[in-house]
Amino acid sequence: MSTDAATHHDDAHHDDVPKGFVHRWLFATNHKDIGTMYLVLALVMFFVGGSMAMVIRAELFEPGLQLVQPYFFNELTTLHGLIMIFGAIMPAFVGLANWQIPLMVGAPDMALPRMNNLSFWLLPFAFLLILSTLFMPGGAVAGGWVMYPPLILQTGESLAFTIFAIHLMGISSIMGAINIIATILNLRAPGMDLLKMPLFVWTWLITAFLLIAIMPVLAGAMTMLLTDKYFGTNFFNAAGGGDVLLYEHIFWFFGHPEVYVMILPAFGIISEVIPTFARKPIFGYKPMVYATASIAFLSFIVWAHHMFTVGLPVGAQLFFMYATMLISVPTGVKVFNWVATMWKGSMTFETPMLFAVAFVILFTIGGFSGLMLGLVPADYQYHNSYFVVAHFHYVLVSGAAFGIMTGVYYWLPKWSGHMYSERWGRIHFWLSVISVNVLFFPMHFLGLAGMPRRIPDYNVAFADWNMVSSIGGFVFGASQLIFVGNIIYTVYFAKSKVPARVWDGARGLEWELPSPPPHHSYSTPPEILPGMLAHGDITH
Amino acid sequence: MSQQAGAYYIPHGSRWPIIAAVGLFTLMWGAAHWLDGIEPEGPILFFLGVAIIIFMKFGWFGEVIRESRSGAYSSQVDLSFRLGMMWFIFSEVMFFGAFFGALFYSRGLQVPWLAGEGHGALTNYYLFRGYTGGWPTAGPDAIGGPFKTVPPWGEPLLNTLLLLSSSVTITIAHHALRDGHRRRMLVFLAATPILGALFLWFQAHEYINAYTHLNLTLHSGIYGATFFLLTGFHGLHVTLGTIMLLVILYRTWRGHFSKEHHFAFEAVAWYWHFVDIVWLALFLFVYIM
Ligand code: HEM
Ligand SMILES: [Cu+2]
After folding, report:
1. Which domain holds residue A35?
2. Cα dist. B275→A284, A362, A529, B96, B236 in Å?
3. How many CA atoms lie within 13 A of A325 on its CB side?
4. pLDDT (average), residues A508-521
């Protein structure tokens, strides 16, 4: 590892870390502090949502009702989905963006630091609101995270609380996204042209655009639910000329781009990590950018692949099927380029690289099952079965969540100035990657055999694979404790110091700053010298 | 705290964002209690939240205005604010998009299907026999009873003219600001929120008329739902815009804006044009067509 830390812009920093808990955290405006808070919140929520999943898997360990009442089971599946999406995956990516984007583009901080604080602090309140519904008369929402009417309109008192919680999360996401766009467009150091930006920054720029476009649409759908329930409107009531499918259309107009919100930043992380450990520049930088942009564009015209079985006109089904198939082209470009980057690279397999390689393989499996689901006639069989559950857990757990873990292992030494334990990192990796497949692969078989999703009890014919899956689930859940342990060890106990360029293959502005970087990364725009950037080097 | 050239501007910590978060939470927590009929906690919390937010707005904007007037903001900060406002308005466009989408979908697809068109034939035959659709409609069960729609060429047309001319007045005021004509600027800027308030007055009148004479209510099937949510959210935006206009009117009067530096003025003007354009879409798709 090279130690040529570019210390030349190290001197001018006013390292005025605010004193006291309240000033540092409650009034925070520093991108690193806010990023840390996002990441901690995401980790906490990962375990809150995860413990719900453990109860779900325990109930499904055997056929029959063992542990929980069916209604409570449904509350758990619903909240598990909402919390993992809005509480774990999305805040984790925003946390990574907060930490990394200013470092990577040479900015002092986020463009709108106070709004950044507000975006974060809305979230704990939102989760307070949504978790409190578990204790309300009538229980929490239990109609699935998609909250379809008319079922969801039968919820008791908690519906209004849930909807307002989602509004808070939406406001938070929109402000976070605006901040990210303003930072990227306005605070890049001189010489950091758009097409020289690191791919993580590119994917977040596009993700932020998606967020601003879709979160208000979700807010619209939630508002219509609210008025239908409390103010007597008839948006979703056919007797009044409305339509429950109207909800599904609006929801999935949000929902499909939303799944890309949860995967594009992971694409970005993988595109940073693979070149570093293959010690080769990314294969096809510009195609990667264009592929991300076309995925984002196409994600707006495929939403009805979630609705193939609801009775859409055949022409519409065909349109959405072909549009869905089309997305696999730019997705394929990405996977191809990652593999081509590794081709003939001098690779080493530290923990971030292990997670990155696993990501490429397992995300691709999820992409293939997505392709199967995107075929209209096939989806008639698969829809609402465990096959769908298998699909989206491959792309979200071994995709998005592995992407986040990749990023954390990759950048944690930079943030903390210490090396995580490589040994425990590897143990975490191998346990996770094996158990995640034991957990989710059998769900393909269960789904194809006809086991429906969101049920607490099932036909004995499905017993064996459910037991296998549950065992995988418990191991996966337990393995994540190693992750937490490793993070705590690195931040508080690790002794070894790491150099500025933590990984010797790493290129980019963040590796020019010392580890840990100063409180305000740059007080004047850094000068970009030859050899600093991963692509589009200043010299040509 | 003026800045040396080329250095980045980094604001210090602030207590206002977390106050805003607490305020929004209190407001929504109260609103949810209120909707569930939990009183008096609901309304109390709700209005407490509103109060916290108003307090926060004064505090936060006050701080930003002081910093701006002390010359702390570089042109880079200015551009960040501009980007923030632009993308905020884009998010608002998408919010209205959801409701316009609901309108187009119901009117263009859903109601015809209920009336038996295309693959809706059997639904209509077995469930809603005799329902012939059309627009406006309160659906097969005529929920909310028979109603009449608001004729476009009365108050709505007047409101269109009001909002259009308010867009003109704010543009004139903006030009006057840039050219340094203080009197002209103040007069035309003052005219804008007055036009906005007039719009709201007629809108309120129209709602009262709809409820008392036309039997057009929130319950009037899909027509009532789309009509009131679209025009209602628009009216809410006009209200907010009018308040924002009053704020910049006060600030102009106090001489806060220079020929070159008047981002707050421009942001409000953008917002006002946005509100105007939404209204034109409403007038066309909700009232005329
Ligand atoms: C490779 C491209 C992909 C295709 C063709 C695809 C296709 C599909 C289809 C057709 C469904 C609906 C299945 C059904 O309900 O019958 C579905 C569900 C889902 N997909 Fe994908 N998908 C892809 C990638 C992704 C990615 C990258 C993510 C997230 C990171 C994702 C997350 C989800 C989720 C969460 C659901 C389930 C939603 C629900 O009903 O609760 N998909 N996918
Ligand atoms: Cu989808």
Report:
1. 31-512
2. 43, 47, 47, 11, 10
3. 8
4. 90
Out of A18, A168, A235, whose CB is closest to B24? Answer: A168
Question: Given the structure tokens 């939240």, which residue do they identify?
Answer: B49
How many C-beta atoms lie closer than 10 Å to residue A102's C-beta? 27
* pTM, to two decimals: 0.95
The alpha carbon of A254 and the centre of ligand 2 are apart by a number of angstroms equal to 10
- ipTM, two decimals, is 0.95
CB A290 within 8 A of CB A207: no
C-alpha to C-alpha distance for A3 and A499, rounded to whole angstroms = 5
DSSP assignments along A155-208, one per residue: --THHHHHHHHHHHHHHHHHHHHHHHHHHHHH-PPTT--GGGS-HHHHHHHHHH
Q: Give bridge partners of residue A497 from the DSSP assignment.
A: A418
The residue type found at A540 is H
- Residue recorded with tokens 């205005």: B65
The overall longest dimension of chain A from CA atoms, in Å, is 72
Taking only the tens place, the pLDDT of each residue in A34-56 is 999 999 999 999 999 999 999 99
Domain at A432, CATH number: 1.20.210.10
Residue B7 forms part of a structural domain: no
**A487 within a domain of the structure (yes/no):** yes
CA distance A40 to A50: 15
Neighbouring CB atoms inside 10 A of B56's CB total 21
Q: Are A337 and A377 in contact (CB under 8 A)?
A: no
Provide, as residue numbers in chain B, all residues whose Cβ is less than 8 Å from the Cβ of A228.
225
Q: Who's near B19: CB < 8 A, 6+ residues apart?
A: B52, B55, B56, B59
The yes-or-no answer on residue A305 being catalytic is yes
Domain at B30, CATH number: 1.10.287
Domain extent for B196? 75-288
